[in-house]
């Protein structure tokens, strides 16, 4: 349809289709690489957040354990004194 409107031969139409496909594929690859890099950075950031939240949880557990140990020590001292 477009071939007749533009006055192109069949060979010119085929060549145009091939070139269009090559250019389209190249454009896709060029735009894809930054997306892959961004996706990788997002995954790394997400992993860092997960590790940070795990470290925070572990620090809270340690603080709670230390507080319980301090309370137990105070109770033992009170029992020994009393």
UniProtKB/TrEMBL annotation:
**Keywords assigned by UniProt, alphabetized:** Membrane, Transmembrane, Transmembrane helix
User: TM spans, by residue?
Assistant: 6-31
Q: What is this protein called?
A: Uncharacterized protein
């Amino acid at each position: 349809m477009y071939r007749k409107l533009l006055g192109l031969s069949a060979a010119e139409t085929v060549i145009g289709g091939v070139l269009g496909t090559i250019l389209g594929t190249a454009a896709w690859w060029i735009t894809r690489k930054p997306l892959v890099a961004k996706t990788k950075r997002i995954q790394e950031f997400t992993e860092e957040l997960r590790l940070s939240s795990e470290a925070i949880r572990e620090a809270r557990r340690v603080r709670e354990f230390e507080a319980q140990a301090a309370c137990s020590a105070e109770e033992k001292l009170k029992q020994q004194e009393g």
